[in-house]
Amino acid sequence: MSPLSKRVLAIIIVIAIVVVGAVTYYSFVLTKPPRKVELTLFTKAGLWADFVRGSGAIERFKERMLKEKNIEVEVKLLTAPHRGYSEKLVATLAAGTVPDVFWVSLVMIPDMVESGYVLDLTPYVEKWDEWGKFYKTIKDMIRCKGKIYAIPNDAAIIIIYYRKDIFKKAGLPVPWQPKTWEDVFEAARIIKEKVPDVKVPLSPYYGGEIQTPIFSAGGKIYDPTDGKFIVKSKEILFLFKVYYDAFYTYKVTPRELILERWDTRKLFQEGKLAILVDGTWCYSEKWGPGMAYEIPNREETVGYAYLPGSGAAGAPKYVVTMRDYAWAIGAKSEHPELAFELIKELVKPEVMSSWGYKTSHLVARADAVIGDYAKDVFLKWNTEAMEKYGVAKPLALGIRKYLKVLQDTVKKELVTEGKTPEECMEAFAAAVTAELGADRVKSKL
Amino acid sequence: MKEIKDRVKVNAKILVLTLFLIPALIILVIFQLIPTIWTIWIGFTDMALVGKKFLHYNFVGLENYIKALSDSYFWISMKVTLYYCLASLALRFLLGLAAAFYITSKAFKGKGVMAAIFLLPYIIPGAIHSYVWLSMLEPDYGTVNRVLRALNLPPQSWTYERLTESIIAVNCWAGYALAMLVLASALTSIPKEYYEISDIYGASRWFKFRKITLPLIKYPLILTLILIFKEDIDDFTYAYMFTGETPYPDYKTELISLYAYHKAFSDFELGFGCAVGFIIAIIVFVLTLLQLKMSEVRG
Questions:
Q1: What ipTM did this prediction achieve?
Q2: Shortest CA gap B160–chain A (Å)
Q3: Are B232 and A53 in contact (CB under 8 A)?
């Protein structure tokens, strides 16, 4: 055989080996039946679960896993009602039923870390190139002991809403931006005098962020340098004074609002409440088109403003308290990598943007300011407010109990029993010390 | 030989009885005994549902019980529970007695149908009652206040000022059938001859009730009162449905069972909640002993 023929034969043999190898690979490896895996996703029933179902995130995740990893994933969606969701989630986790992915309020994270319920996501996040697109304020907000235990799904801030129609009737300026809490009380007092039909001139707090006036005064609730919660300070006294003034000094907030648990969002819709401190989500979730308390001509009727600072030296000009819900992975999840891939799909920019637009939550990443979200005036204003004036509570162990005691003190000692701000602060300090221990609290007076 | 055969028969009977009892015993042990013992144990610890104390809880002895007994809110809850129980007791008993008289009397027709209607609230789940009544008692748009307004009567704050009374009323409406059943059975066991003889002597209805009916249904009556009280003292459903996940600031509807629930599942203090739950169990146990004693005395 000539050398040329030998060369040709060798090339043919090599090509044949490559082809046979490729065919073998395709037949036995790529068309191998996919591995079947089940993931559980636990979230709130109603609006939240419906959005997850409708967003297509689960379907896209399943397609991607089949294509990239040859894994057939079944995502089982479990829900608990909105009312008492955190309690039901904790009971489920304590009973040993640990979902792979679950929706969690950030204030629960420190306790959940101690209980061993949540997985440390820091190693996953460090390898994720999209993490850099999340806002720094939000990334800082979700750190617990320097680690990341949940991926933010959205953000929300607490602002002041006011009824423009009531303000006009009372002769108050629209748009309105109070510079101090005295401005807020003055507006409420004028409404009480000039528009007596208004049942509640002012609703001064949103229970979930009752600590806001502390931030208004430039104060803190926790000192990370010594790991202690602050139980007495000028700023905490300011908080009790603000609420005392609302209920007793100026009488612009009826006690029944708290004692009888009046539905403030409904009262606002009905025009019976003039000034309401509440979250951005109310704008669409409660008052938006087709929602339970729809306000027709919402843009003309509903005004919004930053919460004012206290006006004291060192206090911020304005403040908006930030809060957040996030997705966590159960510590006992058998498929944490897959669970993280699912979360990545749930927090994709287009999904986050759509959720934010639908429910007036703010996006947690800069590249999610797209589509209808980017064009929405309300959301744009709030996103800027969050960047300029956003303050968040620290994710320190004990924060949940601290805030619960603060809520209880305001409701019982202040609203129900009418104790003075000084008495309330003493009661608050004693109660937090009893809950957390004397070694975890301090006074700044 | 006969003796041996008899013994074998008896042993076989006992074996068969035991085999029939075992499934029920297994269920009782798994779903009642073990959880009860576990709950009592947790009551002696500082276990919490979240936080460090979930994994690293300690035996604290009677600390939870001391904390409960020295907690002013525990005593407020006990006061609310006592008020709730006494009010429910009176109303459920009186309504039940009236219904029992109705369904056992000869004067009225359609008693069978009425008895079934009277039983309906008792068999419908409590959560459903609560939803229905919550909407009917809504101060602005609820049916009850609409009727009051239509009758030119002042509407009431059923879901706040009268909240405890609303819960008592719903409980009585749903629960009077128990008293009706027990008392109806007691009434039908009174021999008719006593009433016939008293008719001959011209006794009035009130005399017959005082001298014949009451003495002869004394023990079932007392048993009914104990049963109702026992049922009400650990009532939970209506109070929870009308109150929610957190108590009202003035604890107006905080029954002791709800207090235990809030402590265990809203504050996540499982150890403390279990201790309060065990205190309720002790009270119910004492009432049960009383009930058994009454049954023995009657026997």
A1: 0.83
A2: 6
A3: no
